[in-house]
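Hey, I'm writing a tutorial for new members on how sequence and structure tokens pair up, and I'd like a real worked example in the thread rather than a made-up one. If someone can provide the structure for the chain below, I'll link this post from the tutorial.
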Amino acid sequence: MKKILLSILILGLVLGFSSIGSAEVKQGDKNLVISVGYGYFSAGPKEWDGTYGLGLGFFLADEIELNVGLSGQWKTFGDEINLLVKPNFYMDTQSSINPYIGIALGANFGGGTRFAGGAQIGMKQFISGNTLIQYELNFLRAFKKNLNSITFSLGLGFKF
């Protein structure tokens, strides 16, 4: 499973940088991103695992996106899910590559609800007018369980 996820991530990076489209984001845009990734999780036995995610983003201004999403680990698929609100601040929205930084606030569900918070950096790279690849490095902490995670994800998104 690790080799498959790593291969998908590498393939996405190669394809993403080989075909850059021309698009930009602006106030009022919305996007849907489906992602897979790989990360390190510190609860119990320290482990590496695959991740999945689904996010819906709304651009409140040209530089500010409010993203609402679900994410989790493959090993605990369906048992432990994060519901997060992630305000992201974009550095440049007038090109096909849009880098951002942001925070993540929400809850971790599974064996009880825990407050979760963290931060992320990433970029959205348009490969056509309405299709994008999202790269994101994320740190998240579920506080009552002392679960820390650091993940890298690669997503395919659609602007509408």
